[in-house]
Design a protein that fits this description.
mainly alpha; Helix Hairpins; 155 residues
Length: 155
């Protein structure tokens, strides 16, 4: 029985390495995206806190200097929120791009795996066919010997 040798094995190794690299890049992009979302959530919480402080301060005394400083800080936090939204959008786009690249690499690996499976199946069938031919040949030889022995015995 001859040993199976897949001629595209080096290609399979290269594609598996590429898939591993793209998987790592995708995981890094997911981490960046989740961190950006967490920063955005923190900014939104900070905005709600500012709104509560401003609304709570209006119930008591009105101090123009305090209101101005609160509104400046509130606008700054709102601007930071807008920037954070932009960062989240960029991170989402980068994550989707790296996801697409990873899926392409994964498909390429699957194609090679299917080709290898087909080649292994064909090899197994060929080996089984050879074994069957050998078995048939041995059976034919045995029958020929029996016929020869019976012809010699009857003569």
């Amino acid at each position: 029985m001859k040993k199976f040798r897949f001629p595209l094995h080096p290609v399979a190794i290269l594609r598996e390495h590429r898939q591993a690299r793209t998987r790592e890049a995708f995981a890094a992009a997911v981490r960046v995206f989740t961190e950006a979302e967490q920063q955005l959530a923190a900014k939104r919480t900070e905005i709600r806190d500012f709104e509560n402080v401003v609304n709570g301060g209006r119930r008591e005394k009105f101090r123009a200097a305090d209101e101005i400083s609160f509104w400046d800080a509130y606008r700054r936090v709102c601007d930071e929120e807008k920037k954070s939204e932009g960062v989240v959008q960029q991170a989402r786009t980068a994550m989707e791009d790296s996801r697409k690249i990873y899926l392409e690499a994964h498909r390429a690996v699957k194609v090679i795996e299917k080709l290898e499976l087909k080649a292994r199946t064909a090899h197994r069938l060929g080996v089984d066919r050879e074994a069957q031919l050998e078995s048939d040949e041995l059976s034919g030889l045995r029958i020929a010997r029996r016929l020869a022995a019976s012809t010699v015995a009857s003569s």
